[in-house]
Structure formats: structure tokens, C-alpha cells
Design goal:
CATH architecture of the largest domain: 3-Layer(aba) Sandwich
Oligomer: single chain
Order of helices and strands: EHHHEEEEEHEHEEHEHHEEEHEHEEH
Distance between the termini: 42 Å
Number of helices: 11
Strand order of the largest sheet: 10-11-12-13-14-9-15
Structural class: alpha+beta
Length: 343
């Protein structure tokens, strides 16, 4: 039986900022944590999308923080529903808290008790959880909370392989377009020295492609751009983000915005958050070339997996990416159940 824990509520942005150093320390000892759980990723997100109703919970044992659940209340006016969500919902492919090895599902049940006591919400949606998540296990075992499971959006991943080691059909395709490109000049994948300048190029290429299809794209929302502009330098300084350019004779063919597990992690993943390519060079299949070079670089760096994250893009089927399930749970508060019955 784990030692009884104490839970503390963080309810202001200042509370969250002051906790960030401890948050990072918990992240560093949580083998399940991804860059999507870093405060450098989530605090800028919170400033753009999350305020004002913060309900973050710190779990303490013998006065020492052993877990952190960054929650907030979002009012969905279309559904007349006050939703309790994990910070980062919507723009983060994996959601979770951060937990020290000694944190158990029982400790998390105490945090869920506090969630219920604070009130002010109708339904708690915990989504985009991985099976390895302690929060997933805690909600699976939360008989007292009537947690209803549902499927999250699956992600897709590939093993990090050098181009000669790719499956035959994919290898032939990648080598054909690489040879076409190299006949025109020097083809090189390089990491951007100035991430924000590269991000401006990514916005331009990404927006052009989607606007040509009559779709505004994700950067139509100025809050998205503001979040990335604040966040990118911080996550880059932590060594967990890079923007990469695939260039032909110095001209950008394609760009990749990726996140990285820390170098000390035994099995490392590189997460492909965004890719964009030049429509003027579509005949060279810059997206194919970019992904092939990303996989090759990852393999050479000792990275095990390249995670293509959410989405059902056709290229993921062509590359035979493995689907990885994510999971969710919905818990109604007593007030939420009464509101639902009265509706």
C-alpha cells in the first residue's frame, strides 16, 4: 500500500510558472514523458489557449512532488459543456501528466478525488493517452469514478532506417527521386541555425500548399503562430526540438519541424510535428525525399523510431507506417450528470 499522498491545487498562471523547475525535474525522471509534456511546450500554449481556469494538481509524498496533472477547464459553448482537459489538448499528439517512478495509480486516485472536490466542470476528458501512461492505468482502475473508455486518435510510426535499408519498393522510390535531385545539384539535409527564421519559411510553405487547396491551414489562427514563436526557442534550447531543411543547391525544397526524446533515453523517438514542401518542386517529390532523409539521419544518430503522429495522410499508408493506438476516458461530475439529465 503506497504511503498516503497530499495533493495541492495550482490555480494561477504564476503558480504554473513558479512550478516549472520542479515540473522539469519530474519530466526528467518519467520514462514515459514526451516533449509534449515539457513546461517549455505547455506554458506558452497555456498563455495563448488555456486561460483563465487552471486546475493543475501537484501530488506530494512526504512533502516531495511525485506527480503533476496539468488540467484546466474549457467551456465548449456549442455543447454547453464545461470540459476538464489536459493542457495542450488539440495541438499535442500525446497528452499526459508527469510522474516520478514512485507515483502509483493510487496516488492518482487521490488527485482525482481533489478534481471532484473542486467542482466547476461537467465532464473530464483525458485523451491521447498512451498505454504505458500511469494516468491511463489509474483511469482503467478508477471504479469509484465511473470512467468511460474511448479510443483516441491513433498515431503512426516508422523504424529509423538508412535509405539502403528501407523496404524494397519504398527504397527504390526514394533513391529514384534522390538521384533525380542530385543530377540537378547538391542535395543536403541540414538543421536550421536560426529556428524562428526557419519557422517563418515553414509557415509560408505550409500555408501556400493548403491555400492552393482552398483550405486556410493551421496558421490562419494568429494564436497558433504566437504560441510557436514563444515556444520554439525554449524547447530548442532544451535540446528537444529542431527545424530541418532539405536543400537543393541552397534552395529549400522541404522543411521538417520535429521534437526529440532526450539523448539519455535508452529508446529514443523523433516526433515529426509538421512537414512542408515547395509546390514549385513537386516533381521531385520533396516530401518523399524529406522523410527518407529524416529516417536516415535518425538511424545514424541512434534514434530508434520516427513517430509521424496523428492524421490519416495517404503517405503514411505508402510508407507502411505502424498505427499506434491512443486512449481516452470520460468522467462526468455529479453536477455534469445533473445538467445532462436536465438538458
Amino acid at each position: 500500500m503506497p504511503e498516503a499522498s497530499v495533493c495541492r491545487l495550482l490555480s494561477t498562471t504564476r503558480d504554473l510558472e513558479e512550478f516549472s523547475q520542479t515540473w522539469n525535474a519530474l519530466w526528467a525522471v518519467d520514462p514515459n514523458a514526451t516533449p509534449f509534456q515539457r513546461p517549455e511546450w505547455l506554458l506558452p500554449w497555456w498563455r495563448q489557449f488555456g486561460q483563465p481556469d487552471l486546475r493543475a494538481i501537484v501530488i506530494l509524498q512526504s512533502g516531495k512532488p511525485i506527480g503533476f496533472l496539468p488540467l484546466y477547464i474549457y467551456v465548449d459553448e456549442t455543447r454547453d459543456e464545461r470540459q476538464l482537459l489536459l493542457i495542450g489538448a488539440g495541438t499535442s499528439d500525446y497528452l499526459d501528466g508527469v510522474f516520478a517512478p514512485e507515483c502509483t495509480p493510487t496516488h492518482l486516485h487521490a488527485a482525482l478525488d481533489l478534481v471532484h472536490e473542486t467542482g466547476g466542470w461537467d465532464i473530464f476528458y483525458a485523451c491521447q493517452l498512451r498505454r504505458s501512461s500511469i494516468l491511463f492505468r489509474a483511469l482503467q482502475q478508477a471504479a469509484d469514478f465511473d470512467a468511460h473508455p474511448f479510443n483516441g486518435m491513433p498515431c503512426s510510426r516508422l523504424p529509423a532506417l538508412r535509405i539502403p535499408d528501407l523496404p524494397p519498393k519504398i527504397r527504390r522510390n526514394a533513391m529514384y527521386y534522390r538521384n533525380r535531385a542530385t543530377r540537378l545539384g547538391a542535395l543536403e539535409l541540414m538543421e536550421a541555425a536560426e529556428p524562428l527564421s526557419c519557422f517563418d519559411d515553414l509557415i509560408r510553405l505550409h500555408s501556400t500548399r493548403w491555400q492552393n487547396q482552398g483550405v486556410p491551414g493551421i496558421f490562419a489562427d494568429p494564436r497558433v503562430i504566437a504560441w510557436h514563436r514563444e515556444m520554439i526557442p525554449k524547447v530548442h534550447r532544451a535540446g528537444l526540438l529542431r527545424l530541418s531543411l532539405l536543400c537543393l543547391n541552397g534552395e529549400t525544397l522541404a522543411l521538417a519541424y520535429t521534437l526529440l526524446d532526450p539523448s539519455a533515453r535508452l529508446e529514443r523517438t523523433e516526433y515529426v510535428y509538421l512537414m512542408a514542401h515547395s509546390v514549385e518542386h513537386a516533381d521531385l517529390r520533396p516530401g518523399t525525399l524529406l522523410l527518407a532523409h529524416l529516417l536516415e539521419r535518425a538511424a545514424e544518430e541512434g534514434i530508434d523510431t520516427v513517430d509521424l503522429l496523428r492524421g490519416e495522410e495517404h503517405y503514411k499508408k505508402i510508407w507502411h507506417a505502424e498505427h499506434v493506438a491512443t486512449y481516452g476516458f470520460a468522467i462526468r461530475s455529479l453536477a455534469g450528470a445533473e445538467r445532462a439529465l436536465a438538458a
